[in-house]
Automatic annotation (TrEMBL):
Gene source species: Zhihengliuella alba
Name of the coding gene: purM
Localization per record: Cytoplasm
Name recorded for this polypeptide: Phosphoribosylformylglycinamidine cyclo-ligase
The protein's annotated pathway: Purine metabolism; IMP biosynthesis via de novo pathway; 5-amino-1-(5-phospho-D-ribosyl)imidazole from N(2)-formyl-N(1)-(5-phospho-D-ribosyl)glycinamide: step 2/2
PANTHER family: TRIFUNCTIONAL PURINE BIOSYNTHETIC PROTEIN ADENOSINE-3 (PTHR10520:SF12), TRIFUNCTIONAL PURINE BIOSYNTHETIC PROTEIN ADENOSINE-3-RELATED (PTHR10520)
All residue ranges annotated as the PurM-like N-terminal domain in the record: 63-168
Lineage, highest ranks first: Bacteria, Bacillati, Actinomycetota, Actinomycetes, Micrococcales
Amino acid sequence: MSATDHQPITYASAGVDVEAGDRAVELMKDAVKATHSASVLGGVGGFAGLFDASRLLAYKKPLLATSTDGVGTKVAIAQAMDLHHTIGHDLVGMVVDDIVVVGAEPLFMTDYIACGKVVPERIADIVRGIAEACSLAGTALVGGETAEHPGLLGEHEYDVAGAATGVVEAERLLGPERVREGDVVIAMASSGIHSNGYSLVRRVINHAGWALDREVSELGKTLGEELLVPTKVYAADCLDLVRALNADVAPDAAPLRGFSHVTGGGLAANLARVLPQGVMATVDRGTWELPPIFRLIGQLGGVPQADLERTLNLGVGMIAIVDPASADAAIARLTDRGVASWAMGTVGRVSGDAPSAGADFVQGAKGVDGGAVLMQGSYAS
């Protein structure tokens, strides 16, 4: 049997629509261009994004910082609700806020979207969200890729990932080596669940039989709307705090010691990563009240507190570690920028009886043999 006995096989018949991809680019390109400064060369659609790095010549010793991430199974909520304009905020927050932890300014970002079928409007919604969040972070979106994978992903399925690059002066690098005993641990409120723990969250709501369009009085919105609240992007706020506290101070005396981005693993594990060995942060749960969504997940699923704490951010999305003399100024600065913040603990030495606290004590995390965190007390009611 010859090939002429059959309909010709084309790329389109194999499930890939090149023209749909082109339409998606047309729909998104204005949003992408809005993130570009004079440092971005070329335009949308090139093989590589170009960024003028001449400003790095002014650095004594520029260190490049890079990070890559996705948003996990939160995309399943967006797909179920057919709402895709916020997931880009989640992606940007997960990537650029890892970079600012070391005091680096995120310069540019790229994204990658894999989908079963290119629906131009859906792809454009995703990228518009990425561009909006990049603008909030002061980061240029210099390139990206949309890949159609029929047969691998369902028609309405997609996943997103991104990477960003930033820069910090070597002598201004933040990190564990700057943390001192007596420092204050400052919490910055999260906007919601952010982008971690959705495998647990989805399992709980499915087990409870709750629909995403269910109105939940304590949330003031539907369950699905709450679950899609985008990740808060802290980059601009953190960099503003660095400039306010550290800019005119000798590096060794800089009062802002570092940040911790509360992502997978929860508050204690991520805070422990930015503490030096032998040092312990004691966190008082009583300094904040759990937001309703976290209480709801715990109650619906009967999830133990220890499991909630090592899975979800529980209302704290970013942490700053600050010299005690500058703690009030830091909180005031963040408050002025609309970031709810409060002193949640202090830094000291690891006490001998701390390891006996069981799940309340965390030492080292995610492959980092760093400091320790002791969670104390009960959450405010």
